[in-house]
Amino acid sequence: MYKRCSLVASAILNDVYSMCDVIRHLILSAGVACLDTEDSKNLHVHRLRAELEGRHFERRHISAVDIGIESGTRRLIIAPPEPLSIVITAGHGRRYARIYAFLTDLARAACALSEVELREHNLSPESSRQLFYCCTAMLRVITGARDHLLTELGSVWEDFRDGWNSVVTIDHAINAHRRAMKCMMHRTLLDVSNLTTGRTVGTMCESCVRFAQALNAGDESSAFIHYRYFDDHAQLLRESTN
Questions:
Q1: Distance, C-alpha 90 to centroid of its chain
Q2: What is the number of other CB atoms lying within 10 angstroms of the CB of residue 36?
Q3: Is residue 21 pLDDT above 80, yes or no?
Q4: Into which family does the record put it (predicted)?
Q5: How far apart are CA 158 and CA 187, in angstroms?
Q6: Is the pLDDT of residue 31 over 90?
Q7: Which DSSP string do the residues of 201-212 spell out, in sequence order?
Q8: By CB neighbour count within 10 A (0-12 exposed, 13-18 middle, 19+ buried), where does 105 fall?
Q9: What CATH number corresponds to the domain at position 99?
């Protein structure tokens, strides 16, 4: 009986590790890929799962990944099947969704800024220079924040994977995953102690997108307004981290 229980526990632990690999790939790729927000929900899910299948993850783990709509915004849904949900709970799934959304916002902002083309509009040389400076400054801050967060998350995942060899029971797995989850939330500024900072970065991302939209529409006045709003929040961010 003991041997049978050990085999079952070992199978569950291997399953948990494989599911965590799927989540790891989703989280780390969220800060790099620039998703097309015009895609339908079904197409978005199809592309997401196709990417995971291309990485040769198990289909039953891939099927635990979905996209839902919350307050009009798409959100990642991670719902591991039983008995994996003993370790990766619904609460953990919601936290992973927040990290994914945060990194996606950063990637979307960086993508919007990098695709701005100032030469398409009849701007004065002075305005063009100023807006180019604004765009470059915003892009530097956003990509710096994104790269920093991806590095931090990558470090947490590596620590989690390195420590997995010492996990021999379900309780050990629960504690190891809980510690990693807590560390990820802290390093992505999404835990309780960093709520204001996380919201500030989110506001900056939205300002970047609106800045790019204004420029692409040839509305330089609105673009300058969005830049100033971004810069004000960037200053708040610098003050809060000093």
A1: 18
A2: 10
A3: yes
A4: Belongs to the TUBGCP family.
A5: 14
A6: no
A7: HHHHHHHHHHHH
A8: buried
A9: 1.20.120.1900
